[in-house]
Every structure is written in C-alpha cells, then in structure tokens.
Amino acid sequence: MEVRNQRWSEEQLMNELKRVLSLYPTGQEFELEEVLEYHRRIPDHKSVPKIHKEAVETGRILLQPRVGKATIEEMIENLQYLQEHGADILTWTCDTYCRRNQFEKAKAALQESKRTGRSLLNGFPSVIHGVKGCRQVFEAVDKPCDGRGAAGSPQAYNTWMLGGGATSFQGAALLGGLSVEARMPVLACIRNFQYVDRLIGWFQDHGVILAREAAGFPSGTITPPCVSIISSIIELLLAAEQGVRNMYSTYPLNSCVIQDIAAIHVHGELCKEYLEKCGYKNIFHMQAAHQWPGPYPDDPNKSMAKICLDTVICAFSGVNKILVKSPQEGKGIPTKEGNAAGLIATRKILDLLRNQEFPRSKELEEEIYVIKSQCRRMMEKVFELGDGDIAQGTSIAFERGTLDFPFSVNKHNANKAMVARDLTGAVRFLDCGNLPFNRELIEYDQEKLEKRRLKEGKDDVEMIIEDFRAAVK
Hints:
alpha/beta, TIM Barrel, two-stranded antiparallel ribbon, 18 helices, 10 strands, globular
C-alpha cells in the first residue's frame, strides 16, 4: 500500500468523504457546507479548542469522563448529569459495531435497547442516529463534546459526530490498529486516520478550529512510557501534515508516581521538539493524561483508590486535562452516578493539591534521562527507516521490531519486547526484542528487574502473570 506522510489533495478528501457517507443511509444528512456553517455558529464555551486554550492560560485542569449509551434519550440524560457534576468536556464514545462499520448489527441492538429500556450497546451509535440525532444530543447540553473510539477504520463514526457538533476527536492510527485490530496493516490504519485528520484540516482551512487527540498507546495493561510517548509523537506528526493545528496528546498512566511524572515531562518536551524539528509551526499543543486504562478491581473502593492515586500523579505532572475513570470500571460499563463519583473525587484531589509541586530528585531525573534516551533512539530509527517519511518509517519499524508494542493483538507487531514492573511499580523491559537501545539502556532495566527477582524469588513468567493479576485485586 503506497501511503506516505503527505497532505491529501482536496479531490482525494472529497472522494473519500463521498465514499464514507455512502456507507449508511443517514449519510444523506451530511452536507459539507451546511456542517461548516453549523460549526461557525457554535459558541466558544461549547468548543473544545477554545476551552483547551483557556485551560492552558488559567492553569485549570479540565476533566473529561467517557460516556456512550445506545439511545439519544439515555445519552442526553447521562451527559446532562455529568455536566452538573463537574465534567468540563463531554464524551461521545462510539459503540463497537459502528467502529467496525457493522451498521446493521448496531441498528438491531439500538432497536432492542429501545424495546427493553436499557442500553445494549457499549457506546453511542452515531452513524445510526445520523447527523440529526447527534445534534439532538449536542444541543441538549451546555458543554463541548468530544468524539471517541478506538478503531482501525474511524472514518464513518467521526464524520457523523463532526456533523452533529463534536469539536474534538480522539483516535490514533497506532492506538486503533495495534490495540484492537488483529490483522489490519499499519499503513492501512495510518491511511484511514489521514482522512480524519485532513477533514479536520479542511475545516481549519475554512476558519473552523477543531481539536485532535494523539493518544499514547494503552494496551489495556502495563505499557512502557517510551512506547506511549513515541506513538503520540508519530500521531502528532501525521496529523500536522494533514493541516491539524490544535492538538493534545494523552499519556496513559501506569500508576507509578515517579516514572509517570517523569514520562509526562518527557512527553510534553519531545512532542513539541519533534513538531518544530519537522517544520510544523503555529501548532497549539497541550497535554492530557488518562487514568489507568487497564482493568480495575471489582471492589469500587479499591478502584477509587487507583483513581485518586492517578489524580495525584496528574496534579504533580502539570497536565492540562485528565480522562477520568469510574470506581465501577471493574463491574462493567459505569452508570452516570459511577462516572460522577470519579469526577467528584478527581476534582477534590486536585483542589487539595493546588499550588503544590513534586520535588525534583535524583530518582526523577534518572527516569527522565532513561525515558528520553529510549524515545530518541526509537524516533531516530523511524526516520532512518522511512528515509524521512514518518508513515513509511513507522510501518517498516513494526515489521522489523524496532517499534514494538508489548501485548498488542495485531499480527503485524513483532511482539518480541516483554515488560514487567520493578519493585517500585515502574514498567521495565524484560526483553527489548529488536528495539534500538544501547547497552546502557538495556542493562538499566535489567538491573531494576533483577532486584525484584532476587527479593521475590520469581522468574520472568511469574512476574508477568502477577502484574496482570495485580490490576484487578
């Protein structure tokens, strides 16, 4: 597949838009010029980019819970409840069927949800409700809306959410492809997200600013900081080439205080550095953090403890936004009350820690050095393999294992790198596979893990299994 990091022509964009809108009958409701005019009338307080800028200027940390319900009525009920309980940004999380373009299945589940009076989808089927249905939701709330969904084919549900009034879009080629798509090639994922990014860029060209999240890679389990940071950098560069100018990158926390604080510091620094190095000027960039994206304990009190710990990390890291989880995560899709509980606890922790700073220490500086060194070596290899083209370089790097996401479900990922936690809970490489690290970086992680092996008397397999189970205890 000939996919390069080059801006799409308007003809290419319009051809793909036409194809996407033909996927389901409600696509007839989407008229590009009408959608553009609709967005021009959206007030500032309902625009994600506008409140992003305000948050950076004022120092307020924005809170965003994740919500997705089958029916319009239930979506409105949940979103109104959450805006009353402290949400700064409201989320339209798309259901799995629409993420996979299985629209007839989504339609059937929506009909059954209406019949039974309870949501039978794990998200909001924007394509089935159409632009008109999305606007019903948007116009019923007084906060900005963000469209979300992890998929390798994000074109349809993002287009419908854009038509409905969403002003920000989460997603990433690497996140969508490597975490949920078993067979899709990396270049196919990149190509699909180029459409979303170019559509956002087209609106930017016509005076409407939309935001795009470049998500670090959350595998649903522990993820080495350098892997999450590298994926964010790549996503930012791909989006910037398509004309996106308002972006935020999200780091998925591992719930390890010093390592996560160090990682967020490196995350922000390197994202800005590589954007400038690659010639992308006038980019508004802010940082977000995602409270632990993996499994949670069944006990909501233990889950709340994890949420509070992650909030402490966020407060000391200087992030601009937090993606908030619920203490009900371990029992299934959270209720509106469960999501509100997470919001309230997160805001209270932030208030308690206001104006406090995490002290610089030898341990923190050491983590910053290690993570930054790992990231630089990985990025250098991507540029080298792609002869300067980030899309080609990323694809080749995965083929050769010089980019490798541990525990990925995608067959195009080498899956040679393996990780576990050390005694402090920091994520280290048990096996670096083909990652382009030097001896110093490899030995650093091995020394940290050896201390755990000696103290606990566990081999590598036992450590991996224990770290998987620990999240749900």
